[in-house]
C-alpha cells in the first residue's frame, strides 16, 4: 500500500491552494442582481423608516450603533473565536490556501489583535484607525471602543478566490488569567459581541488537548446567546488522539458546553483537523478517516452556502433590529410618560428603575409586544441608570405605524424579490474539470447528501421560506411556536387542505417534538403544505431526503455519539 493511499486525501493538501474563479454570468449573475435589489430595498427602508426612530430614541447608545450603507453591502462574515493555540489562524490559512498579511502562527499566544481578512487586488494591511473611517469598509461602528482597541485591530487584504464572497475575522486567543484580560485595554467580550452581531457564522474552536473553558471564554459564549442560530463548535486537532481517546474528548466537550450554554438544543460540533498538513495516523484502524472526511465536507458545505443566503440573512437581521427598536421606543416613551411634570422627578426615576420588570410587563400588555423581543432586563437597567427619564422623547403613534408597515407590508414585498436556490457560491466550490484536488472547497459539492441536496428537495424555495420564517415571532432559541406558524402554513396550504392533514404535516416537520419549529423544520412544513395543496399524498413518515440537516446531523447525546460506530471493536479471545 502506498503512503498516499494510507494517508488518504488529506495528504494531497500539504501544498498551497490556488484560487479558482467564480462562475460568471448566467444564473450567478441573475442571483447577484436579485440580491442587490433586495439589499438596496433594505437600505431605503432602514434610512426612511427605522433610522429616524433609532436616532430619536438613542438606540445606538443602548443596543447597537446605527447602520451605514457599507453594513448592508458587506459580504457574509465568518467569526473565529477560541482560546490561544487552538488553530484559528491555521484554519483561515487552510481555507485560503495561503498565508495572509500579518499572520503569525505558533504554540504560544501569537495573534494579539482582531484581523478582518478580506479580498483585495494586492496584499496589504489597513490599520484599525484607518479602517474604521474608510467608507467602503463596514467597520465604522468600532470607533465606539476607542483607540485602545483600534490599535489592536487591522484589515488584511489579499487576492484569494474564497474572499471574493466571504470575509473571515481572526481574533486574539482568549486568555485564562484575570491579569491578562485586564491588560488588554479594551472590553474583549463586547468587541466579540459587536462582531458576532454582524457575522453570518460563528465558529467556536476547541483543541482536543485543551478543553478547558476559561472565565473570559465563558463570558464570550454568554454574550452570544442571542446568536445561537449562527454558532457552531469545531473540535480541532482531533487527529492527534486515537479513536478511543477521541470519544472521551468528545464527551468531555459536550459536558463542558452543557454547563455554559443556556439552551436545551444540542449545538452542532464538527470534528477534524483543519490545517494544510496531513492527518496524524494511529495505526490501521486508529484514525476515523471516514468520519473526519464527512465532518470536513459538512463544515465546508455550510461555509460554501453562506453567499447564497446573504440577502435572506440581511432581511432577518433587519427584522430583528426593527422589533428591538420598536420595543426600545415603547419602553423609553413609557418611562417618559410616567415622570412627573415638576416635583419629585429623581424619586420617581429611582422607583421606575427599581420596578423595571413591572414596567416591562406593562409595556408588553399595552402595546401587545412579544416577550422575546425585549432586551435583557439587567443590561437595560444599567443603561438607564445614568440617564434622565425626563429627557426621553415621547412616543408618536406615527412612528410605531411606520415600523409596523415596514414589518407587515414593505419587507414581505421585498421577499418576492429574494433569489431562489442556486448552486453558485464561494469560488472553487463546484470543482470543474481541472480544478485542483487540494482545494479545500472542491469536495463540498460532490459530498453525498448534505444541505445542498436537502434544499433541492424543497424545489428551490428555501430562501422564500426562510424570509417568511424571519417575520415570525421567535423565542430566545430561534424557534417559532405553533401559534406563530399557523397563519403562514394555512395560507400556503389554502382552504383545500383539511385540518387533519395540517396536523399530520406539523407532526412530520416537528422533528424534535418541541411544539415549535426551527428555520429548517418550518421550510419542510411549508414544502409539505405545497404538496398537499397540489393533491399529492402526505407520507406517513418523513422521507430521509426531507429530514433537515439540523435534525439529522445534530450531535446527539453520548449514547448515540457519531463516534461510537467508528471505534474499533476488540478482537475476541479464542
TrEMBL record:
Nucleotide-binding as UniProt keyword: yes
Alphabetized GO MF terms: metal ion binding; nucleotide binding
SUPFAM superfamilies membership: EF-hand, P-loop containing nucleoside triphosphate hydrolases
Membrane topology value: Peripheral membrane protein
One Pfam short name: EHD_N
Broad class of the protein's primary localization: membrane
Protein's cellular compartments: Cell membrane; Endosome membrane
Record domain EF-hand: where: 497-532
Keywords (A to Z) from UniProt: Calcium, Cell membrane, Endosome, Membrane, Metal-binding, Nucleotide-binding
GO cellular component term, pick one: endosome membrane
Bias (Polar residues): 548-560
Disordered: region residues: 1-22, 540-574
Taxonomic superkingdom: Eukaryota
UniProt protein name: Calmodulin
Amino acid at each position: 500500500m502506498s503512503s498516499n493511499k494510507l494517508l488518504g486525501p488529506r495528504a494531497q493538501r500539504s501544498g498551497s491552494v490556488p484560487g479558482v474563479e467564480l462562475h460568471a454570468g448566467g444564473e450567478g449573475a441573475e442571483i447577484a442582481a436579485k440580491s442587490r435589489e433586495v439589499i438596496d430595498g433594505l437600505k431605503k427602508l432602514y434610512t426612511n423608516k427605522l433610522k429616524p426612530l433609532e436616532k430619536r430614541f438613542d438606540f445606538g447608545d443602548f443596543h447597537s450603533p446605527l447602520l451605514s450603507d457599507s453594513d448592508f453591502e458587506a459580504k457574509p462574515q465568518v467569526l473565529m473565536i477560541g482560546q490561544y493555540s487552538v488553530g484559528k489562524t491555521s484554519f483561515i490559512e487552510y481555507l485560503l490556501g495561503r498565508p495572509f498579511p500579518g499572520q503569525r502562527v505558533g504554540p504560544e499566544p501569537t495573534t494579539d489583535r482582531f484581523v478582518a481578512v478580506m479580498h483585495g487586488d494586492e496584499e496589504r494591511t489597513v490599520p484599525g484607525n484607518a479602517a474604521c473611517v474608510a467608507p467602503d469598509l463596514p467597520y465604522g461602528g468600532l470607533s465606539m471602543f476607542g483607540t485602545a482597541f483600534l490599535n489592536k485591530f487591522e484589515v488584511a487584504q489579499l487576492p484569494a478566490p474564497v474572499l471574493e464572497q466571504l470575509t473571515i475575522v481572526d481574533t486574539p486567543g482568549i486568555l485564562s488569567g484575570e491579569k491578562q484580560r485586564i491588560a488588554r485595554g479594551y472590553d474583549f467580550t463586547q468587541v466579540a459581541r459587536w462582531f458576532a452581531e454582524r457575522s453570518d457564522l460563528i465558529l467556536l474552536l476547541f483543541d482536543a488537548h485543551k478543553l478547558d473553558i476559561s472565565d473570559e471564554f465563558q463570558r464570550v459564549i454568554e454574550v452570544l446567546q442571542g446568536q445561537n442560530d449562527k454558532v457552531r463548535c469545531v473540535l480541532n486537532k482531533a487527529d492527534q488522539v486515537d479513536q478511543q481517546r477521541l470519544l472521551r474528548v468528545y464527551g468531555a466537550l459536550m459536558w463542558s458546553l452543557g454547563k455554559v450554554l443556556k439552551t436545551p438544543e444540542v449545538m452542532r460540533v464538527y470534528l477534524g483537523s483543519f490545517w494544510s498538513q496531513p492527518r496524524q495516523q494511529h495505526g490501521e484502524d486508529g484514525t476515523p478517516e471516514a468520519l473526519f472526511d464527512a465532518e470536513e465536507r459538512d463544515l465546508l458545505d455550510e461555509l460554501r452556502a453562506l453567499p447564497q443566503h446573504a440577502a435572506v440573512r440581511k432581511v432577518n437581521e433587519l427584522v430583528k433590529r426593527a422589533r428591538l427598536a420598536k420595543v426600545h421606543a415603547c419602553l423609553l416613551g413609557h418611562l417618559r410618560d410616567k415622570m412627573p411634570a415638576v416635583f419629585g422627578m429623581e424619586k420617581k426615576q429611582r422607583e421606575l428603575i427599581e420596578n423595571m420588570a413591572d414596567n416591562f410587563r406593562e409595556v408588553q400588555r399595552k402595546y401587545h409586544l412579544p416577550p422575546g423581543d425585549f432586551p435583557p432586563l439587567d443590561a437595560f437597567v444599567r443603561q438607564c441608570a445614568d440617564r434622565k427619564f425626563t429627557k426621553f422623547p415621547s412616543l408618536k403613534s406615527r412612528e410605531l405605524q411606520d415600523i409596523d408597515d415596514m414589518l407587515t407590508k414593505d419587507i414581505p414585498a421585498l421577499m418576492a424579490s429574494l433569489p431562489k436556490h442556486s448552486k453558485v457560491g464561494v469560488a472553487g466550490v463546484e470543482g470543474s474539470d481541472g480544478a485542483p484536488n487540494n482545494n479545500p472547497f472542491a469536495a463540498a459539492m460532490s459530498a453525498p447528501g448534505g444541505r445542498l441536496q436537502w434544499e433541492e428537495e424543497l424545489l428551490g424555495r428555501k430562501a422564500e421560506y426562510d424570509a417568511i420564517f424571519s417575520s415570525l415571532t421567535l423565542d430566545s432559541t430561534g424557534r417559532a411556536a405553533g401559534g406563530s406558524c399557523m397563519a403562514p402554513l394555512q395560507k400556503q396550504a389554502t382552504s383545500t387542505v383539511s385540518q387533519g392533514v395540517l396536523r399530520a404535516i406539523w407532526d412530520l416537520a416537528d422533528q424534535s417534538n418541541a411544539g415549535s419549529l426551527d428555520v429548517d423544520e418550518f421550510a419542510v412544513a411549508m414544502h409539505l403544505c405545497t404538496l398537499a395543496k397540489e393533491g399529492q399524498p402526505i407520507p406517513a413518515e418523513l422521507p430521509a431526503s426531507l429530514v433537515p440537516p439540523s435534525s439529522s446531523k445534530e450531535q446527539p447525546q453520548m449514547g448515540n455519539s457519531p463516534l461510537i460506530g467508528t471505534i474499533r471493536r476488540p478482537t475476541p479471545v479464542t
